[in-house]
Amino acid sequence: MKNEHISYWSQSAEVIKVAPLDKSIQTEILVIGAGMAGILNAYELNRRGHKVTVVDAHELAQLTSAHTTAKLTLQHFTPYQMLLKNIGEAGAKMYHESQLDGIEIYRQLIEKYNIQCDYELMSNYIVSNGDKEKFIEDEYKAHQTIGIHSELHKGDQGLPFPTSIGLEIKEQAQFNPVKFMTQMIEICIEEGVTFYQSTPVKYIEGNIAYTDQHEITFDHVVMASQYPVQTDGERRYALQAERAYIITASGYDTFKYGMFQYMDDPMMSIRHFHTQNGEALILAGGNHLTGAANDPKASYEALENQARKYFNAKDITGRWSAQDLNTPDTVPYIGKYYKRDNVWVISGFNKFGMLFSAVSSHIISDLLEGKDNKYEAILDPERDHGLKANIMSKANKSVQLVKGEILSLNEFETVNGKTKDAVIYNDNGSLKGVINTTASREVVPFCTYCDSLLKYNNAEESWDCPSDGSRFDQFGEVLHGPAVEKLK
């Protein structure tokens, strides 16, 4: 398959290349991360008159923002019935209102700058063929409690497979995120924002961000790097990394125009998108915690089978994956970092970061300027939620358990003539890992961020950390943080 694992979005637009940082600099506001959140925060801060510098560990407009299904909808994986329980009616209403604001921010930017990004208004549906009928009915009741304008439909929902119920929210949207980000980067540069790629920030101490060779002195720093950077020696937030898989297909049975989430097993996220050859299909699913699946490749295979079974798809044209971070209460962290009045956090989007990226740009800009923002309380990174300590405790226990297993080197036998896709083996008392390709190299299979034993991901030919979500390619280079150091 041509360009396997590269998202269609990344293939559809040429993102501007910029140089890495080559000297120590000073800036008023440093934004770490040039995905959707970083770009939109840089834009809004610059629009308000601030001097902004953006750095990214990789190329601009890549990673999760370039691997999303790119739905602009207020109906998330976290159902509103759960939000009512977790954060109460007032909090759920604020959550909903923030998503309406996010949709409006995109609409205004696209209209103001005439951004060509395949932006389309359409309805979003969650659907079932009976197994999740009560869930959808309960979600509709939650919508009514909160004041969400939605419609409950019984009967067939216009998909090429049986459905019996659907919950529709009108005037949602979909778009091509890389086309949008590419044009927003160009707008930012024209307005005076400076970008550097291939510039990972290792840690922050005081008002200085440290890269491999240089220092960036700042008045404020906005961490939009998916996983917050270690600051003043602390790694503070409870975040759980999750993988999701996406395929594209052509030659499929047509269906009602819209965005869909099929809630029965197997769960599927469904949408159309535009190519030079016409419309195509996106299916997403197969989610699992990073480093937790024994056979990640099976997620792609399952989606391909679903495309053929449910949509009669003739050709599978693409496959890629994404990584998301989840918070204990399924509400993002957007706001001031612990103990610091000039460090700002944007993280934990729980699989729906497009709208929160837009909303965060206004929240952070307001708070940084000393203004109130109505969403501050529900998104506060330091909010008190009972699940946080529990998850952090479980994460710590998991790390210790893995470390304990690593010490039992006798469990790993010396391997000669390796035949598996990858293997971790005992090399005279030291663990070594190798992916069985001609190009890969032998590595020490311990995460460089938390020291946990890594697990091989056969879908992406990567080493994945089950404790913090860091990922490394077959050469040991960092694919996803929080790790910043490559494998030895």
UniProtKB/TrEMBL annotation:
It comes from the Bacteria. Residues 29-367 form the FAD dependent oxidoreductase domain. GO terms for molecular function: 2 iron, 2 sulfur cluster binding. GO terms for cellular component: cytoplasm. Signal peptide: none annotated. InterPro entries: FAD-dep_OxRdtase (IPR006076), FAD/NAD-bd_sf (IPR036188), Rieske_2Fe-2S_sf (IPR036922). This is FAD-dependent oxidoreductase. It comes from Macrococcoides canis.
